[in-house]
Design a protein that fits this description.
This protein is α/β, with parallel strands linked by helices. It is built from eleven helices and nine strands. It is globular, with a radius of gyration of 20 Å. The model has no long low-confidence stretch (mean pLDDT 94).
Length: 344
């Protein structure tokens, strides 16, 4: 019996050219799980405003991180993760890689597994915390593709792994060479989401955003809440590194548009810390297992410049998990776990 494993990350343009970046942004932002508004309004916003203005700027940023030999860092590290997992699982497994947007495409990766005759497929969305715009979109697209197959083989999906002990240990290992006591404060910066998307994850509608500090802890009422999962991830990493609660802050980055997003905003926290006299800041980005624009450029460059303008001295970004052996161990565990939910 041969088992198929499919790793899925968000995506990357095929090149840092404006045309390829425009194509990537259009596919990404037209996903109704990413921008959840009426189709016509989304089309006008994305095609008429966001993509034309954002693509040239984003292309310049991609050129900043694009390696002449490796290409896209996200794709490079993702292929290495695929290779490591394939070696760790050994015979009896076929490991494919896909991006939710652009290439390698989900459709081609699933077709490859089908052509290789696998008896089942285990899909691992590479997002520690669940969000409809990331894991939810991957799951929905996989089910849409497979539903058209004449024979639907058993398919299972790895759930959110925000509280997996191997995730916290992996990030702690990345920071093992850094003495956090030398830093005045630690930030756990997670990718932001519109607040309305979180409120929709609670079926009852009586808890999210209504109870004071509702995201600070996680229980049966908010177990699907992205923000609560982020706080839990931060707490577990902090515990691994013995960082006291008073010395770290959870914040959210990459806000887009004028809608209310998850707070506190990373830029506001950085300004406040600098104004309060913080000179050295250590930053983790635990919503990404692989370094990308949001880590190396947004945090490592733009937030560094912001912090210094506001009076800080050094903002140090902890490297993503990328090709670490700890991440390989985590992916192996997720591949071998009993299916959390499946379709067959």
């Amino acid at each position: 019996m041969t088992k198929g494993i499919l790793l899925v990350n968000l995506g990357t343009p095929d090149s840092p050219s404006v045309g390829d970046v425009r194509k990537y942004l259009a596919q990404f932002l037209m996903d109704p799980r990413v921008i959840d508004m009426a189709p016509i309004a989304r089309l006008l916003l994305v095609r008429g405003i966001i993509v034309p203005f954002r693509a040239p700027r984003s292309a310049k940023l991609y050129q900043h991180v694009w390696d002449p030999e490796r290409g896209s860092p996200l794709l490079y590290w993702s292929r290495l993760q695929q290779k490591q997992l394939s070696e760790d699982l050994g015979p009896g497994y076929v490991v494919e890689l896909a991006m939710r947007y652009q290439n390698p495409s989900l459709e081609n990766a699933l077709q490859s597994l089908r052509q290789k005759g696998v008896d089942s497929i285990r899909v691992i969305p590479m997002f520690p915390q669940y969000a409809s715009a990331t894991s939810g979109s991957v799951i929905a697209r996989v089910m849409e593709i497979i539903s058209r197959w004449p024979v639907i083989i058993p398919v299972s999906f790895a759930g959110a792994f925000y509280d997996h002990p191997l995730l916290a240990r992996a990030f702690a290992a990345k920071a093992a060479h850094i003495n956090h006591a030398d830093h005045d404060h630690v930030l756990f910066s997670f990718h932001g989401l519109p607040l309305r998307q979180l409120q929709r994850t609670e079926a009852g509608g009586h808890y999210c955003g209504k109870a004071p500090g509702c995201c600070q802890t996680i229980d049966y009422r908010n177990k699907h809440c992205y923000a609560a999962q982020c706080h839990r991830t931060a707490a577990l990493i902090a515990a691994e590194l013995a960082i006291p609660e008073s010395k770290y802050t959870v914040c959210f980055q990459s806000r887009l548009g004028k809608a209310e997003w998850l707070r506190p905003y990373a830029t506001a926290v950085i300004r406040d810390l600098a104004a309060a006299g913080t000179k050295r800041l250590l930053v983790f980005s635990p919503s990404f297992v692989t370094d990308c624009l949001e880590t190396t450029v947004e945090i490592g460059k733009e937030y560094q410049e912001l912090f210094r303008r506001e009076g800080g001295e050094e903002l140090q970004l902890v490297e993503g998990l990328n090709g670490s052996p700890q991440l390989a161990e985590l992916l192996t565990a997720l591949a071998l776990e009993q299916p959390e939910y499946s379709m067959a």
